[in-house]
Amino acid sequence: MGKGSSMNKNNCQLSTVNCQLISKSYGVVKALENISFEVEKGEIFGIIGPDGAGKTTLFRILTTLILADSGTATVDGCDVVKEYNEIRKHVGYMPGRFSLYQDLTVEENLDVFAKVFNTSIEENYHLIKDIYVQIEPFKKRRAGKLSGGMKQKLALCCALIHKPSVLFLDEPTTGVDPVSRKEFWEMLKRLKNEGITILVSTPYMDEAALCDRIALIQNGQFLKIETPENIVNQFAQELWTVKGVQMSKLLNDLRQYEHIRTCFAFGDTHHITLESNMSTVENLQDYLQMNGHFQVEIKPTKASIEDCFMELTFEKSESYD
Amino acid sequence: MTSIGTDKATQQIGKVIWAENLCKKFGAFTAVDHISFEIEKGEIFGFLGANGAGKTTAMRMLTGLSKPTSGKGVVAGFDINTQSEQIKKNIGYMSQKFALYEDLKVWENIRLYAGIYGVPKKEIAPRTDDLLHRLGFDKEKDTLVKSLPLGWKQKLAFSVAIFHEPKIVFLDEPTGGVDPAARRNFWEMIYQAADRGITVFVTTHYMDEAEYCNRVSIMVDGRIDALDTPKNLKDQFNASTMDEVFHHLARKSTRNAD
């Protein structure tokens, strides 16, 4: 990035985003509590957690739209408080709520965003081409009249048209069907290859695997920051799938078992962990048979990100008790 | 069949929804293209499809908000072509976006919806206490809804949607954005409602949730391209998960709307 050379003054070439002990409260609600992390240049960094966990607050602090109560953060080497003007030139932000001009057409919206950043659609067209061709047939349509998927694509184009070095995407895939979500993530991979650093938040745990590293967030705190592979590899319990004929009754009976540790419905099976020094799978088989379950299959399985999220939440609640 | 009034409807014993060749056109665009299906009492029916496949349009017809261009249908015993007002009174509806009034207290929200749906005045107070007790919300009776955690709000929204004991409840992406544990709790409530005989019609983008349904339909370009139990669908498409089934079908879409 030619015009960015002046930004290396803070000597932060390695981490594009550097966040230290950021906290933010709204009244008595602690939206963020001592959040620290770094994102390297060219990384896809996922912030994964439910609504209300603090994802949007974090993005708004890093994009200089609100101020943290305490802590420091830099984006592309610039401080989010002192050098907010510089940051605003170099980041792209796609908010969770559709924020384009509803009364302007698709191409007018894009043009506005390009001109605000002193560039033109032509100059950076290569960045948005793959996405824009999909909405180009509707370029004369007002943005407010677009379907959800097309709005999302237009919003991404508008966030990209000034060739940002860092892209902040706040829940870009919420409410989007699995096929369109997959396409969206393929677009993100192509942008990563262009050297753009991407911070993306999502409530969909299955999207975690598509990130280079992820932070699991709940109640304003990071539960863990790791690569997706390491998060599942660090799952410390033996995890089992249980399958039977009456899945609903099976779930209840599993919950009643005295040595059950965790138990969750998981698609066509239930996922459980046992108090390992208290019970074996054979004991559990016997117990289930006594309760009228036949053809019960109990198999070991590998944890998914969602298992890990629930496990980390569980461990946290246990340590509070 | 020349007409389907309530007499015909009551003959459809056990069928809470019955649709035949439902169509909805907007100008030259066919949003819903001749869909037919039946749903039994107490069934949990998953209504899947890509964005723009026609799910919302179909749901609007089934809930009495929009008239079909052609085709017939009976919901909760009433004709969707001629008795949309009765349909609205006899169903429950909950969506992720429109659920509760944030600036009203928990009990006020229940009171409001119970009144709208015609629950007898004398019953509202005791049933409200009973509901809050079952949810473990006794202490939250006077809490403003906006200060409840999202998972609680969704539980409450669902309970409010079925407070008048409708024959069927429509759930439009009810679990979007909630944490994984709360999402599972929510499904347990769905099961309990179905066990009480309430039919559940649910849309979702979480494919693991499709597994929790008794039967699942998948819409592609306005048509229902697949309809069966999750197990049979997986067998039919030689897939190990519903996610694979969904990708297999939705990829065939030629619609550029989304």
Please give a structural write-up.
The complex is a heterodimer of chains A (321) and B (258). By secondary structure, chain A is α/β, with parallel strands linked by helices. Chain A contains 10 helices and 14 strands. Chain A has 2 domains: 2-232, Rossmann fold (3-Layer(aba) Sandwich); 240-302, Alpha-Beta Plaits (2-Layer Sandwich), CATH 3.30.70. Chain A has helices at 55-62, 84-90, 106-116, 125-135, 148-160, 178-193, 228-233, 247-256, 281-290, 305-320, and strands at residues 15-26, 29-40, 44-48, 70-75, 78-79, 91-94, 166-170, 197-202, 213-218, 221-226, 240-243, 260-266, 269-274, 297-300. Chain A has a 6-stranded mixed beta sheet with strand order 6-7-8-3-9-10, with helices on both faces. In chain A, strands 2-1-4-5 form a 4-stranded antiparallel beta sheet, covered by helices on one side. A 4-stranded antiparallel beta sheet of chain A has the order 12-13-11-14, sandwiched between helices. Residues 1-12 of chain A have low confidence and may be disordered. By secondary structure, chain B is of the alpha/beta class. Chain B has 10 helices and 10 strands. In chain B, strand 4 (70-75) and strand 5 form a beta hairpin. In chain B, helix 4 (106-116) crosses helix 5 (121-135) and helix 6 (150-161) runs parallel beside helix 7 (180-195). Chain A binds chain B through residues 49-53, 134, 137, 147-150, 174-182, 203-205, 218, 248, 251, 264-268, 306, 309-310, 313, and chain B through 49-53, 96, 149-151, 173, 176-182, 184, 187-188, 191, 195, 205-208, 211-212, 230-231, 241-243, 246-247, 250-251, 253, 256-258.
